[in-house]
Amino acid sequence: MVSYYYFQKMNNGLPKPGTWENYFLEFLSGDVPWGSWFDHVIGWWKAVDKHRILYVFYEDMIEDPKREVIKVMKFLGKDLCDDVVERIVDHTTFKAMRENPMANYSALPKAVFDQTISPFMRKGIVGDWKNHFSVAQNMIFDEEYKKRLEGSDLTFRTEL
After folding, report:
1. Where are the alpha helices (DSSP H) in 11-159?
2. Is 152 helix (H, G, I), strand (E, B) or coil?
3. φ, ψ for residue 82 (rounded to 5)?
4. What is the DSSP letter of 11?
5. Which end of the chain is more exposed for a tag (fewer CB within 10 A), N or C?
6. Where are the domains of the chain?
7. What digits encode the pLDDT tens for the residues 38-89?
8. Which pLDDT value is given to residue 159?
9. Is the domain covering 2-148 a CATH 3.40.50.300 domain?
10. How far apart are CA 51 and CA 111, in angstroms?
């Protein structure tokens, strides 16, 4: 939710999200430009029954990037030598991607992405939501999350 908020703030192709408090409620109701996050993730989680899909979670990539690169490699049916895997790991760190114009969208004009408001690649840390959610918002989100993902084995980690 926090990432979407900052993305919407800097993306001039989307309506401005307003205050965090307002955005929080709109996000939970699905009243954001891309619709309900809950419907989106549950839809793709269930799509594995019909399509060959690999789920990769940001927290897992931060926790053990090499493990996740190997997971992608195996999913794609590739067998890469350790040197290539290490180079992929190095090139896909948040720091490397944040400095790479092909990944950070810094070449886009300010009229498209105003990165003076928020960089496209903002912080790259797990758990920054704690700096935005109030205690009450956390309780509201947890309840909605529990309700909307009920019956699913999909879980997200929010901390490492």
Report:
1. 20-29, 37-46, 58-63, 65-75, 82-91, 94-98, 101-104, 135-148
2. coil
3. -55, -35
4. B
5. C
6. 2-148
7. 999 999 999 999 999 999 999 999 999 999 999 999 999 999 999 999 999 9
8. 82
9. yes
10. 37
